[in-house]
Amino acid sequence: MIPSEPILREVENIDWEVHLAARTQRMKSSVIRELLKLTMQPDIISFAGGLPAPEVFPVKEFQDACNKVLETSGPMALQYGPTEGFPPLKADICEQMAKYCILVEPENLLVTSGSQQALDLIGKLFVDANRNIICSRPTYLGALQAWNAYEAEYHAVPLDDDGMRVEMLPDVLKKLKKPGLLYVLPNFHNPGGTTLTQDRRDYLVELARKHDLVIIEDDPYGELRYEGEDLTPLFRMAPERTIYLSTFSKTLAPGLRLAWITAPKPLIARFVQAKQGADLHTGTFVQHVAHEVLASGFIKRHVRKLREIYSSRRNAMLDALTEFMPDETYWSKPEGGMFLWVRCNKQIKTGPFLEKATKFKVAYVPGFAFYPNEEGGSSSMRLNFSYSDEDTIVEGIRRLGTAMKEELAGS
Amino acid sequence: MIPSEPILREVENIDWEVHLAARTQRMKSSVIRELLKLTMQPDIISFAGGLPAPEVFPVKEFQDACNKVLETSGPMALQYGPTEGFPPLKADICEQMAKYCILVEPENLLVTSGSQQALDLIGKLFVDANRNIICSRPTYLGALQAWNAYEAEYHAVPLDDDGMRVEMLPDVLKKLKKPGLLYVLPNFHNPGGTTLTQDRRDYLVELARKHDLVIIEDDPYGELRYEGEDLTPLFRMAPERTIYLSTFSKTLAPGLRLAWITAPKPLIARFVQAKQGADLHTGTFVQHVAHEVLASGFIKRHVRKLREIYSSRRNAMLDALTEFMPDETYWSKPEGGMFLWVRCNKQIKTGPFLEKATKFKVAYVPGFAFYPNEEGGSSSMRLNFSYSDEDTIVEGIRRLGTAMKEELAGS
């Protein structure tokens, strides 16, 4: 019945742009992801991505888990599942959260397809045109991407070594006509590398209560602490108004796309509605497999290993920066996580400078990518220290320093 | 550092509702998914879900594929991946589409986390407040759910045995001030069970060209044809303005959450931007595994098996309906897919009647769930015939018929 001659591979299209919703004007492709493509030449040392070290992924454990899941509950694991998430995995997450003295029940959780989906669902539930989002600058690029699509308006205060400069918030809040969302990355900030001090956490919660703000606590790296002691999660301090996000992407593997939202029960019911419309539910099979891998305390042992490896890499990067960076360059000293932030000599514009850096076979993410509306960060960059081994890190930083020095000499 | 006394499990919450975006008033939990929970008692025969038969899932093939993927490319398969999708899987999809004489290149494809995500991304790109969506009534519930969240406005024409009543569209289109989206389920309509005839397809395309409409062709069941011959996809007839959706949920397994969008290249670039903000990318691991399962023509053999099983089940249901339904009951005779639609005697209101049906240990989805704004379908229901075996189907329809006859006698 179907005519057998092939259709044209590319026909003259209608003008799609006239059909698009107004919000698409705010939606852009992630600078990071586009960059990743450009820097994927094998001879480039890239500090641009946010990739965990693949050689540490527990491949053998996954294989055992896949076999067990398919042998014992194959049909169930391949079938549709509940939007809320696979109950045994939710029980695992409750257990994991208890470590931070966050005692929640499965009904306080929604399993999401990565933390990026959690950010999108927050956008869907909370962000209207010109909705106020209070955040740090720089801030997490993925959050900007998610919320730009809902036409958010950002009010940002700078970061320093102690995290978001909360003392600048009252002035910002005074100007807002309606309450807003307060977006915080308290531990090992992406891209800043900084951790919000306990005093600042206290003050933040005080402000949130006074101004009736919803707190979004984004904590993908909490487990990856290499020194110092855990600080109190905001969720624990203000559970009545906090939405807490975390993920298995950094502790197990990002290719599963498994993360979760912790929130009060009535709000989880709303998130479930939003997720039904967004992707029905997160993959049943990967949830079964993750539950199997997590059995018998695997993650605790695995995180210990990750901490060891990543902290050595962080140290290698910090030492190399000291050795190779030109004068008037400053960088954060993260106590955990995967990133650090470099403020270069003001003469270096990290956007255009990237071309020179790739000629020196090294890559990073220019700072502007992490600023709402790209306003700021023109002499800053984000470096990832989790992906490359120590020798590669030292060589990459050497190349970066050389390129910078040449740039400064030439200008 | 973290205080060790537990936080309250449930604290007095802030009033979340005042913080929510206006669009959340349109977002409701799916009637089907809530129903599914209620009807999950093991002694109920449920025709309510849209579940494939789990006993046919290729569990062994998945196990072999998982082992091969993890042995040969474990770290890659567990790492972050490109938003566009895993290239070898996209090549598989191109090959599959070629069967319908749709010749596309990988750049015409975006892998999505189930077709539900494709519908959500269409909403994000195209649907503004009061955006016109032209569809059938009844129509697919998941599409309503996805687009309600973007405040769509629906203009619906009835279905008959030949699909959407396209001759009623000119009157609808006359009233629209701006162009809109035309949402079509041409093959084995969910919930209607009908297939759009070739004449109607021709006329639909003519109208779309005249009124500059974007066509959304949702085709999850295309492979599951039990009689008759394939008709020409709208994408093939009007590739310049059609977005074609399909999925592995019905042919492989829904628990993977793997589907795809086919569209002109410039539009795929827009979809990629939207997906980056929505969930970064679809799971790497399940894409690797699906590619492995698809190797050496597996799906062709498997679909043959599915067709055999589902067509027997469809026949069993059709025969049982003839035997057990009361007078003045009409149902569609689907040539494929997983559902049929029953119009009951007008005295039966399928919403309230569901309570009686569950007392008779049988369940269905009331028709109103498939109507925009729930306006219509009050005496109709959707029945699924893919999940239960033939004996169970006959017994379930017997129960349903008995309940209906009692209802009619009592009223």
Question: How does this structure look, described?
Answer:
The structure is a homodimer of 411-residue chains. Chain A has 411 residues and is α/β, with parallel strands linked by helices. The first copy, chain A, folds into two domains: 16-57 and 300-410, Aspartate Aminotransferase, domain 1, CATH 3.90.1150; 73-297, Aspartate Aminotransferase, domain 2, CATH 3.40.640. The first copy, chain A, has 13 helices and 14 strands. Chain A has helices spanning 31-38, 59-78, 87-98, 114-126, 141-148, 169-175, 198-211, 234-237, 265-279, 284-294, 298-324, 350-359, 390-410, and strands spanning 45-46, 109-112, 132-137, 153-160, 163-164, 181-184, 214-218, 242-247, 259-262, 330-331, 339-343, 362-363, 365-366, 380-384. In chain A, the strands form three sheets. An eight-stranded mixed beta sheet of chain A has the order 2-9-8-7-6-3-4-5, with helices on both faces. In chain A, strands 10-11-14-13 form a four-stranded antiparallel beta sheet. A two-stranded parallel ribbon of chain A has the order 1-12. In chain A, helix 8 links the parallel strand 7 and strand 8. In chain A, helix 4 crosses helix 5 (141-148) and helix 4 (114-126) packs across helix 9 (265-279). The radius of gyration of chain A is 22 Å and the shape is globular. The mean pLDDT of chain A is 93. Chains A and B meet through helix 2, helix 4, helix 5, helix 9 and helix 10 of A and helix 2, helix 4, helix 5, helix 9 and helix 10 of B.
